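for ur thesis appendix - Isoleucine--tRNA ligase, mitochondrial. copy paste whatever u need, i formatted it the way the template wanted (i think)
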Amino acid sequence: MGISGCGGTGGRVEYMEGTGPSSASYILEALEPQRLIRFTIQPTVLLNRNNASTPSTKHYSKTLLLPKTDFPLRPKKTKPEPKATEAQLTQLYQWQQQHNRGPPFVLHDGPPYANGDLHIGHALNRILKDIINRYQVLRGRNVCYIPGWDCHGLPIEIKALEQLQAKGVSAEGHQLDPLTIRRHARKLALNTITKQKRDLISWDVLANWNFTEPNSRYQTLDREYELRQLQVFKAMVQQGYIYRRTRPVYWSPSSRTALAEAELQYHANHVSRSVYARFPVSVGSLSGLTEHQICLDAGVPLYAMIWTTTPWTLPANQAIAVHPDLTYAIFRAMVPETTEPTTEAYYIAAEPLVTSLGERLGCGASLHLVGTVRGSQLVGGTYTNPLTGQPKPLIAAPYVTADAGTGMVHTAPGHGMEDYEVGRQLGLPTVSPVDDLGQFTAEAGSELVGKNVLAEGNQAVLEILRQCDALLQEAPYVHSYPYDWRTKQPVIQRATPQWFANLQNIQETAIAALASVDMYPSSSMGRLQGYIAGRKEWCISRQRAWGVPIPVLYDVATNEPLFTDESIAHIIEVLSERGTDAWWQSPVENFVPPSYQGNGKQYRLGRDTMDVWFDSGTSWTLIAKLFPERIANGHPVADVYLEGSDQHRGWFQSSLLTSVAIHGQSPFGRLVTHGFTLDNHGRKMSKSLGNVIDPHVVVQGGTDLTTHPAYGVDVLRLWVASTEYTKDMVISDAVVARTAELLRKLRNTARFMLGNLDSRVVTQAATLPVTSGIDRYALYELNRFVEHVTAAYDELAFNKVFQQLTRFSNTFLSAFYFDIIKDRLYAEAPDSEKRVSSQVTLHHILDRYTRALAPIACRLADEIFRHHRALGQPSDDDNDVFSVFCTPWPQIEAAWDDSQLAQAWSLLTTVRDNALVVLEQARQTKAIGRSLEAEVGIWIQGLPSDWQDPNQLCAWLDMTTDDLNELFIASRVTLITQAGVWQSRQSSAVAVGDPFMVKAALPTNLERPCAKHALSVQVGVWNTTLHKCPRCWRYDSGQSNTLCPRCTIVVNQTSGGVA
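the 3d part is after this line
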């Protein structure tokens, strides 16, 4: 049996015998876990290098201890059984809640929208969370993970309306009964949750999937959830955070509702209409002209020059703003695009911009500077809005700059937040002549009424400007512009009565609360802080039917809100009994508090619903209900929040703000952010590009299993773990295929170990000694593996876990340790000390390897665990241990940490690596066929005088001569410390390597502390004079076709002697 080969390459078997084709194939795969090679060899025939049959060896194959296991090379291809998987996941989740005695660990699930199929980004998110949770289960923590769904809001309502339209019902939401919309939206959300639940189960997400049990999931449409949300709203009202105001908000004409900043997407290539216009200024209103002795010719008009990219807002113009500290020029020019291009006029603009304006407007040749004034000297002047004919003031505003435009800013408080703020301070009217559909109202004038402001309305304004000779220039302007994130249509800013949360008093506390939050990656801290610092208020009202109603009554006569603690508490009480649909079903009288009944006033119910970010942002209340002691002790309710980077503007922010408003602290102790999935060209996934990777297809296969095989869920999970998920990640068919190959290697590593274990070793491993130096070194490396993997899991750096798993499996185990010990595993006597030592070591390695793998490839880990455990004899106390997750996380074993051993093996592995290079040189020159045909000499110079005896060095290395032969996979290995010996043998070497330096901490004598010595080492290779053993194929026999001494003893013991 060829059980030694090319060291350092994962084990290469050139010739093989077995009891049949299946055993031959098995041995090859076992010896080379990282390669899959199959061929058939006739049983009981040994092939020598000359392909000669040696009949006398036919009995020896039966004396070899070949690997034996029913652990399959590949997982069984059985059709997934969702119900069985659901039951298994639920059983394990409930088991850990009942048995794990560690402190609770809460990973709070950010709710996805219940409006469509889950995609690869959802798979990434949920698998990342599940890896964290499963690791914490192994650490003995009592994990609380409750899957959640965001069920309200525009995305679901729009989809419900589309379904109604498909059934022949009008899709105009404002024309439908709100209860009809709500009924269909609820049905859509619940059906979607059922579908998404199936996907989550197929990804092996650990949770209580028995949704009939309490606290097994949360849905923002549930009555209990809505009532907790309303209680948060009530508390914020009591603390003075909630108010109503008519002010500009982002308004989506396509959705007919207000939007928060988090619901916007900015399109970089939006094209607006850029307009330079002139508004006539009353010369007599400008006292600064006289002070600067600026004389203007009588009869020549003076204009304020403005620039805007929203000409549709000009009908709402209430002022022109200047900066009080800027210098403004008054110049005379003829503008070609006016009605009378040869007629001169005076203009006012910021002095730094005059030259560029002259060039842009084509009036540079005629431009003549008359004088300059400070912006403050223009304030108080008046001009006329040519669209309305009304006089308006020139005002001061700090946000005006001379970077672009004209330095004179058209101000419409009804259509811009900065305009609104300065207008509110100065008492300017907040005019917004635009309706919910984005069309001009009658207030804009008969020529504009009914026209869409972003389409024909914009053009109509330009025509009016042209007719009244106010248009200086009009051109397309490409810039970044906000769009509705769901309808993908542009939005406008429009003043409407809305409900707001005042964030100014929360900001400082919220930012301070983040100081105690562990951000991963740390760079996300600045991003979230920036979003919070830049937000003064939060528009929480929406004009849609599908949502939680804002509990406010309005006086029919005055339209004033009834908004008291008593009224809100009464409304919440009614809704707690009847559900939020009652807001659209029950008469208003049911919601009027007793103390307000009979006061002579009539009330109506408000029809605004809450922003969905307020919905999901109060989800922490569920965790607070389950763990009230956390709030009481000033601790975050959740240990971890984990979502995509877009949630800094969304759920992260809304959760933090509502929690700080109520409890003054962050709801999360650790905030983890992941990037987005891209194709191999760095593009976003898109059906139109055909680059979508469907997680369902990865797991269960596509319609054509040849091109899209069913890889299974562990491949999907391993891909997630392999990524640097804090950045954008690449996935493609090729990436998935490579990941599948990596998983196969991990599987075959475990298969090799299982094949070389037996029940005696597994059941008695705790008492059986590990005596071999290579085995003790393997346990030392196992400690390092556990140490590094634990640190990586704690850090949430799963790509580092993946790297440790592949390095340990491929580099250390398969290419090093397995290659060395396979001879003793197959050819030693069953109960030999060396073989048992390696088996015990394999048992310990497999045990820890399985648990390190478990949070990521949970199905493979459980499969390994079942086969490993089946080798033992579980006691009655172990009957409840049905999964690897019912066992504890591995600890560092102090007995395996031997610093002297580590130093010795650092030297040995360095020497071995160099020796393998020299052996390869000998093979290349055909001086030897395989390393087993060679003898290796290692000349060591620089040893202390009392270390000249090679046996003393072997004792320090804890290596016998036979151990060295195994390590170097050679016929003989000799340590040479005398120069004369080396020189006498060097001339007959078939290959000699260059000298190299190593450091060794050697005791000055065996009782004194170590001192570091720099040693010079040189390796030589010679042809062996020994013969190949027909049983183990080692070159250790004195005669041809004769068993080596070791095999002679073993065969005599096991079969009565066939030597």
